[in-house]
Structures are given as C-alpha cells and as structure tokens.
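Holo prediction. Input below; ligand is NAP.
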Amino acid sequence: MPKSKVFITRHFPTKLEQLQKIATIEVWEERQPPPYTVLLKKVKSIDGLLCLLTDQIDQQLIEAAGTSFKVISQMAVGYDNIDIPAAIARKIPVGHTPGVLTDATADLTWALLMAAARHVVEADRFARGGQWKTWEPNLFLGPNITGATLGIVGFGRIGQAVARRAKGFDMKVFYTSKQRSDQELEKDLGVEFTAFEHLLQEADFVTIHTPLSDETYHLFGDLRSAQQRSYRQFKLMKQSAILINTARGAIVDPEALYQALANGEIAGAAIDVTDPEPIPTDSPLLDLDNLIVTPHIGSASRQTREKMANMAIANLIAGLKGEQLPNCVNPEVYL
Ligand code: NAP
Ligand code: GLV
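Structure of the complex:
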C-alpha cells in the first residue's frame, strides 16, 4: 500500500518513527511558520497536516485541500486558528491535545500571578541596574497573595487546576463559566460560582481560562460597539487588582488594557498571550512597568511538550488510517 503524505509545520519535540511506518513526512524546518501560500500549496497533495496554533487553517485553505486530505492534527488544546465549520463541511476531523498541558499552564499562571503581585521582574531589573542601595521599608511593596480573593474566568481543565493550587494559599475563590460545575467539585476545590461582573468587583486577582471564540473576543475591554469605548470590565475591577491572561490574547482588547494599566484602573497585569503575537516591539504596552509579558510559554515544560507532540501524532495516525481521532474537536464528522 502506498504511504500517506504528511506535512508537519515545524520541527517536532519527539521521535517520528511510528508515523514514518505509514507516512512520508515533510517537516518545515525553519524557525518561522510556513507562509500561508506554502500551506495552501501543500494541502493540495497531502493526506494529513500536523500544525501549530501559529498556522492559519481557514476556510480557503480547507476548501483548497485535495481529495486525499483526511486529517488536521494540531499540537495545542486551543484551536481558534482553525475554521471548524469549514472542516465539518469537508468532513475532515480536527485533533487537538487537551489535558496533558493543563498542569504546566496552571503552573505558569501561578508564576505570573506571583511575579506580578510581588514585582519580581521589575525588582530583578532594579537589582541588575545598580539601583539596589540598601534594604528599604517601602521597596517594591505588593499585595498579599495568601488570603486574597481569586476570580477565575472559564472553569474548565486549566481554570480548575488553577483553583486547586489556590487552596495552598488560603484564597477565597470565585469562578464564572458558561455553566456551573457540580457541587461536589465546587466543594472539593472550595470555589463559589458567581456572575462575571460580581467576580470582577470582588477579585484581587482575575485569571482568564476561556477559549477564544466570538463570545470571548474582547471580553475584557468590550470595544466591539463604537459607542461603548468605556473599558467597562476594567472599571468594574478593583484599582488594586491584577489581571492574568494565559488563555488567548484577543480575549483582552490591548488598547483597553493599556488604558486600564496606564490610568491606574487596575494595578497590574501579566500576560502570556497577546494580540497580535508576537507583541509588536513598538506596542505602548511594553513601556509599562506594571505589565509582565511572556512569549506564549504556558505549556512549555519539556515533559508536557513531548506529551503534546505524541498526542498530536496519535491523532494524525488515527486520521490517516480512517479511524476516529482519540481527541477530536469536531466529532460531527463521524455522524
Ligand atoms: P476547557 O477545559 O475547554 O476550559 C474552557 C472553559 O471555559 C470551559 O469550562 C468553557 O465552558 C468555558 N467558557 C467557554 N466560553 C466561555 C464564556 N464565554 N464565558 C465563560 N466561560 C466560558 O479548556 P482548557 O484546556 O482549560 O484551555 C483553555 C484555553 O487556554 C484554551 O482554549 C487555550 O486557548 C488556552 N491555553 C493557553 C496555553 C498557553 O500556552 N498560554 C496553554 C494551554 C491552553 P464550556 O465547557 O461549557 O464551553
Ligand atoms: C496553547 O496555547 C494551547 O492552546 O495549547
């Protein structure tokens, strides 16, 4: 039987032997993602695509795929870069990598929360810059973390893992999500369901863990309506509050975030994700001392990345064999 043809959009953190048994593999070896035009050409002749969140898999690309094209497998849990309705229309299953990156991403969320609260990045710059002259009673004062109120927006895998870690800090934890979790879980994690706006008013730390969707686009900032340039969500938050975003950049309007931080509507923010990515080097956000930015490294532990890669390959192999993907975003394609 002829081997399947597969295109992998970046060098992969795992061995590809299993895949090599059934497929001829082409890997895009450059550091930057393949240009869209390259992807558009590739999908015409391949059976499967292994992609990353930096690849734009839109309707045009999916419609351009050749008749042998059977599967899209993404090495990420989020899949907002893929046009799922277009994949359903072509009956192409889309795989992703949920679960294996939950702890790593919750850990980074906590690293950012603590770094922002206790000015870790600014203090490092201060010490290296020769400004550390003596112990000072008022140097880099931040809020308490222990005993503070945490607000979790989006209570899925990562949101819940963040709540689990909050138990060690004796925090009061509110969450808001599309639906309320079962009471057993709430009791176990010591969390309370509340409305989004109440959470914003009460929390000392607000952390975002929803997917990016039409519903969550600019959930913070709400600039969708031209009349409503009020940055309402930030105004509801405490002036001492800190916002953490390890979900997707476009959930927060960057202009609204800048205004809120520059005008002291909130005290600080720490973001692993920006809109666009990478953050432009001339973004005014980068001039602010009360903002920490990391380059989308939520899942970046060695073990996690290897698990994600293996999971993405398992999805790809299943798709090439015409079997149901173990982790499929659009199971409608099997109906
Ligand atoms: P998940 O288990 O699907 O959790 C997402 C939660 O958000 C679900 O409970 C969902 O509710 C809820 N939600 C959806 N829309 C909402 C809305 N409009 N308002 C409030 N809650 C809403 O996903 P996960 O594994 O925790 O991952 C969450 C996101 O984190 C991913 O989609 C990805 O974008 C991001 N992420 C980033 C990194 C990074 O490197 N920084 C790493 C991993 C993940 P329903 O289930 O009822 O829809
Ligand atoms: C990372 O952002 C992911 O969605 O896995």
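The chain is about 30% helix and 15% strand. That is the main takeaway for now.
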